[in-house]
DNA sequence: TGTACATCAGTGAACGCGCGTTCACTGATGTAC
DNA sequence: TGTACATCAGTGAACGCGCGTTCACTGATGTAC
């Protein structure tokens, strides 16, 4: 038996989501540190004061956006790393999955790439923590691979971070490619594959 | 015989530099997209209207900062890549050079990391272009290395981009480490070395 | 070298505007009996 | 089921403030003769 929310709670959540959506849209063309409270409420269509019923500040809203954005990234990372098949096939699939995620959630990707090094400390910290959790997940996934035999914990962590950073950087390249001539997408795909291939080679001969 | 600037020109350049310095300092705690014109002039100690004698807008000032910041990065990149010695020694030296650059120009590093994916388009473009030039330089440097025998142009480009991104990411990790417990620096050093080592291994066996 | 005029970096007053935050409010939803 | 009261998401007026930009200005520096 599922817990049904009261009408009031449901409406509140709906408004909250409207704030998150509106903010994310506005953030395609600016940084969080310049996002105005009134700007967001205007986009949602409520009074400025309604904002305070949901968030203390735009920084607070930003932290909520981090959870939403990296939540959607979670399944992608898992699928990417655990993709089956031989090395070349896995690389192809991984890059494809990244491209598809960027197509599906461009604003989320942009937000994370932008605010990871952005001007709002609590948001930077939230992203750092979430990415660290990601890296841990990736590390666990890597440890299961027979190729990881003989690897120590720190080496696995290093590789996991390398993959996570590489994914994010590739995602942001795909994002830029969205507003570029059509062949840019293929250039990014080729580059990303090549880089993953080099990491694969390094991985294979790490213990030589 | 060197061309000496008139008093007027010299004073103007001095004020312009004061604008750049003040802006860079203010940008340690916010993004360019929220930097105010009056905020900068207040920090410099001139009237708000003086700003327009030097820049059209804060975005324009941002582009000027890109040139300054990546200008200072230039020598570092060259030295890092061309560092002599065997592989392990080169890696140690490279990571050390990055750490030293971050100590010397923390605000420059922060600015580039922040605005690379930031909310101001012309600045993003300026950074992208400058980093592309960097990658070209690194590529030329790599091509001179005997290890590059048999590598095609695209593979060299891929490796160059990988190094440039890796350098920037490492630099921004060192930056964060500045306001963390002392041993964080060593953790970053160890991680960066390990990652460069993996890239080295991949590079060595690329043509296997 | 001295004089008369041109240039132009920096000034200071003024403008209209949107900002974040406060406060007492309204009226639909929730709850106790 | 009906009634009386409590809760609380969203309102709307008001505030003081700093913003970007305009404009005519000043006075030191530069230039022509």
In words, what does this structure look like?
The structure is a homodimer. Chain A has about 210 residues and is mainly α. Chain A is built from eight helices and no strands. Chain A has helices at about 5-25, 35-45, 60-80, 85-105, 105-115, 120-145, 155-175, 185-205. In chain A, helix 3 (about 60-80) packs across helix 5. The longest helix of chain A has 25 residues, at about 60-80. Chain A is elongated and about 65 Å long. The interface between A and B is large, with 40 and 40 residues. Chain A binds a DNA duplex (33 and 33 nucleotides) through helix 1 and helix 2.
Summarize the structure.
By secondary structure, the first copy, chain A, is mainly α.
Main traits of this protein?
DNA-binding, 0% strand, 208 residues, 8 helices
| Rg estimate of chain A, integer Å | 20 Å
- What percentage of amino acids of chain A are in beta strands? under 5%
Classify the secondary structure makeup of chain A into a structural class. mainly alpha
H/E series of chain A, N to C? HHHHHHHH
């Amino acid at each position: 038996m599922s817990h049904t929310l009261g009408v009031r709670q449901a409406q509140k959540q709906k408004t909250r989501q409207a704030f998150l959506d509106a903010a994310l849209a506005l953030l395609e063309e600016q940084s969080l540190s310049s996002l105005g409270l009134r700007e967001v409420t205007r986009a949602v269509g409520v009074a400025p004061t309604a904002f305070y019923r949901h968030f203390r500040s735009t920084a607070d809203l930003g932290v909520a956006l981090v959870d939403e954005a990296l939540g959607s990234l979670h399944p992608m990372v898992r699928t990417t790393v655990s993709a089956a098949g031989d090395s070349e096939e896995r690389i192809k699939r991984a890059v494809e999955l990244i491209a598809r995620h960027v197509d599906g959630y461009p604003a989320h990707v942009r937000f994370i790439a932008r605010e990871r090094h952005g001007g709002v400390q609590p948001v930077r910290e939230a992203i750092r923590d979430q990415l660290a959790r990601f890296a841990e997940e990736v590390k666990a996934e890597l440890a299961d691979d027979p190729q990881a035999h003989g690897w120590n914990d720190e080496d696995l962590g290093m590789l996991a971070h390398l993959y996570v950073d590489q994914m994010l950087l590739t995602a942001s390249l795909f994002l830029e490619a969205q507003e570029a001539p059509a062949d840019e997408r293929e250039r990014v795909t080729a580059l990303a594959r090549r880089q993953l291939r080099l990491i694969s080679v390094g991985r294979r001969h790490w213990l030589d």
